[in-house]
Amino acid sequence: MLTAQSAKNLVSIMLGFGIGAVNTLVLYPHFFGAANQGLVVFLLSASNLLMPLIGFGVSQTMIKFYSSYEKSAQQNFLSFIVVLPLIVAVPISFIVLYFHDAIAALLSVENPIIATYTWVIFAVAFATAYFEIFYSWARVHFKSVTGNILKEIYPRLSVLVLLLLYAIKFLDLDLFFVMLVGLYYLRLVMMMLIAFRIKKPSWSFRLPHNVPELLRYSLFLVLAASAGSLIIDIDKFMLPQYKSIDQTAFYSVAIFTAALIDVPGRAMFQILNPIIAKTLNENNKAQLNILYKNSSINLLLLGGWFFLLVNASINSLFDLMKNQGYGEAVLVVLMISFAKLVTMSSGASNTLLINSKKYHVSLLLTIFMSFFVVFGNYLLIPIYGINGAALSTLIVVVAFTFIRMGYVYAYLGLQPYDMKTLIAFLVIGLVFGASYFIDWEIHPISSIVLKSILVTLVYAILVAALNLSDKVNLWIKRFLSR
Fold first, then answer.
1. What percent of the chain has pLDDT over 70?
2. Which of 41, 55, 240, 277 is disulfide-compatible with 355, CB 3.0–4.6 A?
3. String of b and e for 277-296 (b: at least 16 CB within 10 Å)?
4. From CA 183, how far away is CA 187, in angstroms rounded?
């Protein structure tokens, strides 16, 4: 069961997603313009790529090691861990200040406007890195709700307010970015005060006894987090190097829409992760097999429903956009959402790997994935634009999902697929094929509502009739009874 804090955190995630949807699908396209939206997406994506390096992985290092210290040594550890990122941040600050013009020129070959706002990348990266550190300060004391609100809701709400101010011409673009960076630093100060209220600092200059171990673990996390960020944000970083900045806006809207497929997985793994860790520690292979197979079919069926809702109505959704260029991203949504669906069908494969003694394999796979995504983008973006970026991600994600499952099978002798998996994919494919090509000459909102109802009813009937999952069937019966 979800704890009270986990349930509140889940609500924060969903609310943040809703605010993000208003920003991405309504305010940006209608009031900010595709070019400006692409600029914001590029700058924030670039800061996300830089953030793990500046943070030096210490936010997770704090969580892992804090409880291992005696109470008298915990303050030494906290003091050290807060200062540690400065060994990276200070040199990067010098490089950014000294070589700003050269860096700006390098990033703005295709889109000169980027050069004016290159400073935003480092400023946001630094504020975000230290926010995560003080958020971990609160989490190690089992206080996560307020920090999660600041993490999930605050940035999206800040952007919403700034977009509204821009829409009424209270802000110009320069002031928009100044206030955006200022709001990120306000969030950092708020998180710092919350953390210090939870545990008042007592600064110490004595080093922890296991500094080499802390540095090794932090470096491991820097590599893993950087590779993970690369996979998520490299498309939005590379697109402006080859195409006009508005293409990044079209791509970001498509990615955000396809991310809806992840919602059930993010909720389920909050529960599943600790259960799998406990089962692995007990070496209960029979129970692991049950968890693995159930997570696979349940996530596939739930993800399949979201996949159908998104792709059946995607043309109608883009018809609502002011700029018809967003319609170019229909294939992007299909490719990225299918990649996510395949990942969800693999169930707990990555969770099994991360919680096992072979956790370092997860890092290696992530690094290889990031390399091939970059290489694929380099080849495909100049030819196919945003569709090339999506195709690169699709190929790499699907390939490495099966490689990960193969490694789990070789290591643990477990695999999640059976005949029900094949039937589920066939059902999703048939419903998608039937719904995608239905084109009603009605208002886009009416079309979205009617298609969503029709898809949900047909899909639920087929899933229940074929008895693909006892758990999903139970959810369907409970829904119908209400």
1. 81
2. 277
3. eebbeeeeeeebbebbbbbb
4. 6
